[in-house]
Amino acid sequence: MHETAYEITTLTPQQPTPNPGMLPTEIPPGVQMVTLPGGIRTLAYTPQQAPPAPPIPVAQPIPTWAKTTALLTPTIGGGIAAAGIGLSYAAPGLIAVTDALWAAIALIAAAAIGIPMLLRIGRTTAAGKGSTHITQNITATGMFGKANGTINHH
Hints:
Layout: E1 31-35, E2 41-45, H1 64-129, E3 134-140, E4 147-153
Antiparallel strand pairs: 1-2, 3-4
């Protein structure tokens, strides 16, 4: 028989890794780049590992602001509803009050126009009858002196 001798070579850590042109995305599933105990890096099939179990959710305590809001919501809603019912019962009275206020505003406006007109009319009639004129003459001597005066009716 004829035997052929083959030279066996191994990669040393200083030499390039196998398949230098292969991208990590081109590696088939179940194959990974592994480092052997001698320091040589190579591709090898690895056993499929079960994916880690998803973390179990832990119950979180309800925040205080959420509790407060949840407790206040029906109270605020009830208050708004009560206010709406109260306004619906009070509507006829509110309409009467607004009518009374408009009447009061009209009375004030009429008085603001009417009173000056009545005063003008009263002055013109009094001027025709004759008016009384009163004059005063007051004299004083010195800063703290006694004052003397006379009143004249015409």
